[in-house]
Amino acid sequence: MNLALILLYFRLKSMETIVLNNGIEIPKIGLGVFKSTAGEETFNAVLTALKAGYRHIDTATIYRNEHSVGDAIRESGISRDKIFITTKLWNADQGYETTFKAFNKSLDNLKVEYIDLYLLHWPVEGRRLQSWKALEKLYKEGMVRAIGVSNFMKRHLIELLEHSEILPAINQIELHPFNYWYFKEIVDICKLNGIALEAYSPLTKGQRLYYKPLVDMSVKYGKSTAQLLIRWGLQKNFIVLPKSVNNERIEANINVFDFVIIEEDILIMDSFNENLITGWNPVNQM
């Protein structure tokens, strides 16, 4: 192996994890389980992912499949400290005291002693600051290794930063080339403040996998369009959360550390922007 190949290998390996602003390490690809049915479907998807090399699973209270995630983790035989578990506080549970109840319920569902990352799922008006105070307490008590937010836009984040002791480690939002410029302001704010970005729905829920310029690029690289979208997110230094319950796709989605998209093509992918939001749009959330 020549020097150039060795350097490329270590460059790619170094992109598999990043260090958050509190010093903990997080895998840059995680399996999302949004809309994965509790029971066999979620259990099999998570178990397949762990066997394929995933070490990051992203769930939430509202997904109602935390217990299936926990069952699969135990079945895998992989040590708990090798797996990064994210779950989220749902809107109806927000508030100071209710946050603790919801968090303990998630612990019970997952059957774990701590959570790696706990997020405010949405910026609920009138309750998000008290909910964040509860997350800070959980963090100080060692019940969670990192805390963050999801679907927070500029005004939500600025408000939080003005009233918080602990900087959010992560902001999780929908991110892909088809909405990159739409969310560019919050991406830049997060980067400026040392807050990592997590990209959910990075595959556009399948809506743009057959977009012709993307298909043409996939032929050039010998990779699927889904792999290109994931790789784009990695090269933007996002944590990427592709979701699938198909075994072959789960395995393919993590097979993205053996190539690099050249900068010229990254810029072309950036230009795919069409302000596409495949889920709820947090921009108008008060």
The CATH homologous superfamily is termed: NADP-dependent oxidoreductase domain
Our measurement of the CA-to-CA distance between the termini, rounded to an integer number of angstroms, reads 55 Å
Output the structural class.
alpha/beta
The H/E string reads HEEEHEHEHEHEHEHEHHEHH
Count of runs of 4 or more consecutive helical residues: 11
Overview of the structural elements:
There is one protein chain. The protein has 286 residues and is of the alpha/beta class. The protein has a single domain, classed as TIM Barrel. The protein has 11 helices and 10 strands. It has helices at residues 3-14, 40-52, 66-76, 96-110, 128-140, 154-162, 184-192, 212-221, 225-235, 247-253, 263-270; strands at residues 17-19, 25-27, 31-32, 56-58, 84-89, 115-120, 144-150, 170-174, 196-200, 239-241. The protein has an 8-stranded parallel sheet. A two-stranded antiparallel sheet has the order 1-2. Helix 7 links the parallel strand 8 (170-174) and strand 9 (196-200). The longest helix is centred in the middle third of the chain and has 15 residues, at 96-110. 43% of the residues are buried. The model has no long low-confidence stretch (mean pLDDT 95).
Descriptors for this entry?
alpha/beta; two-stranded antiparallel ribbon; globular
